[in-house]
Specification:
single chain; mainly alpha; Serine Threonine Protein Phosphatase 5, Tetratricopeptide repeat; 2 domains; 0% strand; elongated; SecEffector_AnkRepeat; Ankyrin_rpt-contain_sf; Ankyrin repeat
Length: 205
C-alpha cells in the first residue's frame, strides 16, 4: 500500500469518525500516519479520536488546541498540558459560555486572562461568567464591558458592572443604550451617575 493511500485512509477515518479503521491502520502501519491528523480530530470535536491519536504518539499542536475550544477537548488538553494558552483561547471559551471550563483554566493558572475577558462575557450576556471573573480574578474590565451590556440591554449585568467592576465615565454606555432603544438603562445609568457624583461631593465637604 502506498504512503499516499495510507494518508488518505487515515484522513477518511478521522473525518468520518471511524475509530475501528484507525485502529486497523495503526496496528498494521504504526509509523505512517501524519501528525496533523490531531488537528482534524480537534476540528470535528471528537475527543475519543483525539485521545486515540495522542495515545499513539501523535503531537497535539497549538493549531489543534485553538480549533478545539469546545467542551471536554479543552479539559483533556489542559490535563495533558497540551498546546499554548493565550487570550484567544480564553475569550473563545467565554464566548461559548463554558463557565466550567473557564473555572478549570483559572484553577490551572492558565495564561490568557485579561481585562477584555470580562468585556467579552458582558458582550455575550453571560452574567455568571462576569460574576465569576469579578469574584475570582484581578484583571477587572475596561469601559467596553459597561457599553456592551448597555447596548445589548443586559440590565442585570449593567447594574452589577456599574456597582462592582466599572470605574470611569458612563457617557458612552448611556449613548450605547439609547442607540438600541434601551432607554431604561440609560436613565438608570444617568440616575446612578448623578447620585454617585452627589455622594462624592458630600464626602469632600
Amino acid at each position: 500500500m502506498l504512503v499516499e493511500d495510507l494518508h488518505y485512509l487515515t484522513t477518511y477515518g478521522i473525518a468520518y469518525e471511524n475509530l475501528h479503521l484507525l485502529e486497523c491502520l495503526h496496528s498494521q502501519f504504526p509509523a505512517l500516519t501524519p501528525s496533523w491528523n490531531c488537528s482534524i480530530a480537534s476540528n470535528i470535536c471528537n475527543l475519543n479520536l483525539l485521545k486515540f491519536l495522542y495515545s499513539h504518539g501523535h503531537k497535539v499542536d497549538e493549531r489543534a488546541m485553538k480549533i478545539a475550544v469546545i467542551g471536554d477537548i479543552v479539559l483533556f488538553a489542559i490535563d495533558k498540558r497540551l498546546g499554548e494558552w493565550d487570550n484567544t483561547i480564553v475569550n473563545a471559551v467565554v464566548e461559548a459560555g463554558y463557565l466550567h471550563i473557564l473555572k478549570v483554566l483559572h484553577e490551572y493558572d492558565c495564561p490568557g486572562f485579561t481585562s477584555t475577558t470580562m468585556d467579552v462575557a458582558a458582550r455575550c450576556g453571560f452574567f455568571d461568567i462576569v460574576m465569576f471573573l469579578h469574584e475570582h480574578r484581578l484583571e477587572g474590565c475596561t469601559a467596553r464591558a459597561l457599553s456592551y451590556a448597555s447596548y445589548f440591554g443586559h440590565f442585570k449585568m449593567v447594574k452589577y458592572i456599574d456597582r462592582y467592576c466599572f470605574r470611569g465615565s458612563i457617557t458612552r454606555a448611556v449613548k450605547m443604550a439609547q442607540s438600541t432603544g434601551h432607554n431604561f438603562i440609560a436613565k438608570y445609568l444617568l440616575y446612578e451617575g448623578f447620585n454617585a457624583k452627589k455622594y462624592r461631593s458630600k464626602s469632600r465637604e
